[in-house]
């Protein structure tokens, strides 16, 4: 939990203070050391279902593989536990929602791959953001029935294909949002500050899994600018944890 608290102040800055904008050309590839990838993912809280000892609730597949769910929304995870308590009270009463960081999940995935263990993670995005991603792709002329993975939304200029960046602590970052609504808020501020470019900004959607794979495999230091911005629900969760820690102290 300390890893989440460490990012709480910074996330507040990213999500609200967007005084400086820049449209810049950034290549579509990057290769980062694993510790830097973990650091980028560490700021995002995710939620799993586990027993009181921390053992995750797993489902077994036909090939004997084991899968545990990783919810992007705490409310979705709580709703899942609620349904489980109704359908299987004995099991449902033994589990609870546990918060981790996306960086910790990534590290567990890497360890599982190295050790040849069979536990897999199934990421569960929010239905609202999946629908937003599908709608956006359809508007762009693509035929899609469903969006595979967790959607991330990013703004770019239709004039030069550069990504919209935000100035933070004297540096330009490229924010990737888990909620389309949050990105829309940033774009509206950009349009107010630079009305001459108001019609040039478009929204793209990519998958979280694809973004991580690109960070792992490609080679371009400029994409160190990429920063993940958690959903509003997740930001409120981080703030609540911080307040609880302060009260305890």
Automatic annotation (TrEMBL):
InterPro entries: Tic22-like
Top-level division of the source organism's lineage: Bacteria
Species name: Euhalothece natronophila Z-M001
PANTHER family, alphabetized: PROTEIN TIC 22, CHLOROPLASTIC
Organism lineage: Bacteria, Bacillati, Cyanobacteriota, Cyanophyceae, Oscillatoriophycideae
UniProt GO BP: protein transport
The name this protein goes by in its record: Tic22 family protein
């Amino acid at each position: 939990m300390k890893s989440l608290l460490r990012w709480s102040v910074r996330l507040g800055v990213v999500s609200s203070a967007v005084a400086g904008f820049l449209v810049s050309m950034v290549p579509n590839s990057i290769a980062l050391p694993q510790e830097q990838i973990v650091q980028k993912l560490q700021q995002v809280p995710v939620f799993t279902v586990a027993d009181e000892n921390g053992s995750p609730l797993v489902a077994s597949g036909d090939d004997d593989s084991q899968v545990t769910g990783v919810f992007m929304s705490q409310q979705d995870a709580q709703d899942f536990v609620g349904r489980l308590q109704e359908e299987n009270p004995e099991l449902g009463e033994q589990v609870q929602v546990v918060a981790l960081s996306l960086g910790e999940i990534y590290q567990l995935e890497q360890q599982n791959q190295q050790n040849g263990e069979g536990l897999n993670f199934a990421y569960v995005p929010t239905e609202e953001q999946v629908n937003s991603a599908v709608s956006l792709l359809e508007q762009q002329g693509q035929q899609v029935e469903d969006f595979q993975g967790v959607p991330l939304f990013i703004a770019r200029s239709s004039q030069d294909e550069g990504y919209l960046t935000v100035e933070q602590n004297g540096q330009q970052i490229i924010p990737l949002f888990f909620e389309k609504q949050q990105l829309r808020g940033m774009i509206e501020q950009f349009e107010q500050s630079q009305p001459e470019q108001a019609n040039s900004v478009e929204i793209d959607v990519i998958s979280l899994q694809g973004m991580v794979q690109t960070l792992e495999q490609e080679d371009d230091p400029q994409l160190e600018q990429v920063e993940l911005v958690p959903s509003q629900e997740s930001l409120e969760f981080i703030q609540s944890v911080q307040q609880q820690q302060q009260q305890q102290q």
